[in-house]
Amino acid sequence: MRDTAVSRRSFLQAATLAIGGLGIGACRPREPAPAPLRILILGGTGFVGPNQVRTALARGHEVTLFNRGITNPDLFPDLETLIGDRDGDLGALEGRTWDVVIDNSANIPRRVRLSAEALRGSVGTYLFVSSTGVYLPYLTTDIREDAPVDVIDDPETEVVNGRTFGALKALAEDEARNAFADNHLVLRPTYIVGPGDPTDRYTCWPVRLARGGEVLAPGTPDDPMQHVDVRDLAAFMIKAVEDDLRSTFNVVGPREPLTMGGLLERTRTAVGSDATLTWVDAAFLADNGLSALTYWTEPAGDYLGMMRVNGDKAFDAGFAMRPLEETARDTLEWFNAQDPERQELRSGLSPEREAELLAAFRG
């Protein structure tokens, strides 16, 4: 297990993608959609995409994938997959029409511009998947969709890192809006968790708590936390295009406030753990090189409102979240079914580092 602290600043460093869970999102109605849609998904075989595909197919929609054929190419053998590269090789999209395109994978505005221009006139709605990272620095709380977004001095840069990620996502949103002025939909999810998460930012908690013993809990029990289960995010995406929604939505949850204490206690109960929690304050963690741990960050300074983004608009439009306990159990079950190599956690503390920090904190 590697000793890592994955925060919004290191979001893009998770290099290996995994397949999402099989569950369908909490807000999906049971009956098929009244009008099947032809949906084009850019990507579709990483983490979020497979959940979109499964939800769309369960709703009776027709799905086409466009990707390079590199990540999990055998995942959906019965689906039409157009091979190309959104960075200049878009020929496979010519002469085709769809009702909706879902753009999952773009962080570079230029690539969104190329895709949107290639598809303008060929699709009805452009759904762009952005991030609440556009609001960095999170200097206020109760952040709503009309809040200011991040900017950078060089909007043409294609270097994606913790400093540029949010601003580039905001610029990419603008590219989708410019190309589809009346037919765009922008979703800004917070940290995405659940079965298949390639970062293990939340996965590390049910795994660690299930192991039992003394667990280092970062910060205070009252620190705010937000997340979205990947299956519920995918379900809202499909519902949003079925309902012909427009505009921009923060997709964060749960709707009722969640704290770090609530997250760990509920996860511990869900996995049947007898672990004990030792709360270690942010100052001690920072002194020991941990300004963040998994997706917890001290709610102060630039990160004051990171976990206090307002999601009312999406909930009012039909977004729904399954209980945290279900996410915890399903995530642990998925992780335990992986091969030994994948069971090396990519987030959290190694047992040795955790024991070392706890001993130093007590001392």
N→C terminal distance = 25 Å
Beta-strand proportion: 15-25%
What string gives the helices and strands in order? EHEEEHEHEEHEEHEEHEHEEHHH
Strand order of the largest sheet: 3-2-1-4-5-6-10
Structural class: alpha/beta
How many β-strand runs? 14
**Average pLDDT for all residues:** 92
Number of helices: 10
Taking the sheet with the most strands, its summary is:
7 strands, parallel
Percent range for helical residues? 25-40%
Structure commentary:
Helix 1 links the parallel strand 1 and strand 2. The longest helix is centred in the middle third of the chain and has 15 residues. It contains 10 helices and 14 strands. It is globular, with a radius of gyration of 20 Å. It is 29% helix and 19% strand. The protein is of the alpha/beta class and 363 residues long. Strands 3-2-1-4-5-6-10 form a 7-stranded parallel sheet, sandwiched between helices. The protein has a 3-stranded mixed sheet with strand order 7-9-11. Helix 2 packs parallel to helix 3, helix 4 packs across helix 6 and helix 6 packs across helix 9.
